[in-house]
Design brief:
With about 230 residues, the chain is mainly alpha-helical. It has three domains: about 40 residues, no CATH class; about 80 residues, no CATH class; about 100 residues. The protein is built from seven helices and two strands, in the order E-E-H-H-H-H-H-H-H. It has a two-stranded antiparallel sheet with strand order 1-2. Strand 1 and strand 2 form a beta hairpin. Helix 1 runs antiparallel to helix 2, helix 4 runs antiparallel to helix 5 and helix 5 packs antiparallel against helix 6. The longest helix has 26 residues. The two termini are about 60 Å apart. The structure holds zinc ion. The site of zinc ion has 8 residues, from loops. Zinc ion binds next to loops. Keywords: Membrane, Transmembrane, Transmembrane helix. InterPro entries: DUF6320 (IPR046283).
C-alpha cells in the first residue's frame, strides 16, 4: 500500500501520481503496476451542449401541446365561450417571438420585428373578435402596436449602425419614452373622441427632456464623459 508523501491520501497500485495533488508516486517497496486495471473510469462522461434546434423543437412541442390541449378542453369539457382562443393565440404569439431567435438566426432582425408586430396584432384581433366594441382594434390597438414597433425598429437601427455607448443608448431610450408617451396619449384621446392635447405625457416629456439634456451635455464634453465612465465603470 502506498500513500502520497504530500497529502497522505491512500494510493492505488496503478497510480503514477497522486490523483489529488499530482505529486509523483515513488515507493521503492511497491513498484507501480502499469498494466493493472485503473480504479476509476478513464472516459469522461460529457454531455453534448444543447443546440438551438433542440430548444426550438422543445418550445414548439410545449406550445403546440398546450394549444391543442386547451382547444380540446374548450370543445369537449368547458364548452362555454371561446376561451381557448386566447391561449392558442398566446401560444402562437410566443412561438413567433422566440422561434426566429432559436432557428432563423440569419433572418433580418427588422423582418423579425415586423413578424412580431403581425403576431401581436393578430392576438389583439382574436380578443377583438370576442369583444367588438367601438372598433378598438383598428382605432386603438393597431396604432399603439405600430407605434411601439416603429420605436423598436428605430432603436434597433440606431444601435446596429451607430457606435452607441451605454450613455448614448440611454439618451435614445429616454427620447423614445418621451415619444411613446405623447403618441399613446394622442391615440387614447383620439379613440375616446376627446380634444387632442397632452397632459400626463407632457410631464413624461419634460422629465425625459431634462434627462436627455443632461446626457447630451455629458456626451459632448469629453472630460465629463470620461469622469462618468470612470466612476460608473462603463
Ligand atoms: Zn497527494
Amino acid at each position: 500500500m502506498s500513500y502520497c508523501v504530500h497529502c497522505g491520501v491512500e494510493l492505488d497500485r496503478t497510480e503514477v501520481s497522486c490523483p489529488l495533488c499530482n505529486t509523483p508516486v515513488n515507493n521503492p517497496n511497491q513498484p507501480i503496476d502499469i498494466n493493472g486495471k485503473l480504479p476509476y473510469p478513464t472516459l469522461k462522461g460529457q454531455v453534448d451542449p444543447v443546440k438551438r434546434g433542440d430548444s426550438a423543437i422543445l418550445l414548439t412541442v410545449v406550445l403546440l401541446s398546450t394549444a391543442v390541449a386547451c382547444g380540446a378542453l374548450n370543445l369537449l369539457v368547458f364548452k362555454q365561450g371561446l376561451w381557448s382562443l386566447y391561449i392558442i393565440g398566446l401560444c402562437a404569439l410566443l412561438w413567433v417571438f422566440f422561434i426566429p431567435v432559436l432557428i432563423y438566426s440569419r433572418l433580418s432582425i427588422y423582418l423579425t420585428i415586423l413578424f412580431d408586430w403581425a403576431a401581436v396584432a393578430l392576438y389583439c384581433w382574436i380578443i377583438y373578435y370576442q369583444f367588438p366594441v367601438n372598433h378598438w382594434f383598428l382605432r386603438l390597438a393597431v396604432p399603439i402596436i405600430s407605434l411601439l414597433t416603429a420605436f423598436v425598429l428605430i432603436f434597433t437601427f440606431a444601435i446596429r449602425y451607430f457606435k452607441t455607448s451605454i450613455l448614448s443608448t440611454a439618451f435614445l431610450v429616454f427620447a423614445e419614452i418621451a415619444g411613446l408617451g405623447v403618441g399613446l396619449e394622442i391615440f387614447i384621446r383620439m379613440f375616446l373622441n376627446q380634444k387632442i392635447h397632452i397632459t400626463w405625457s407632457a410631464v413624461v416629456l419634460v422629465c425625459c427632456i431634462i434627462i436627455d439634456g443632461m446626457l447630451f451635455t455629458i456626451l459632448k464634453r469629453t472630460r465629463l464623459r470620461e469622469e462618468v465612465r470612470r466612476r460608473m465603470h462603463i
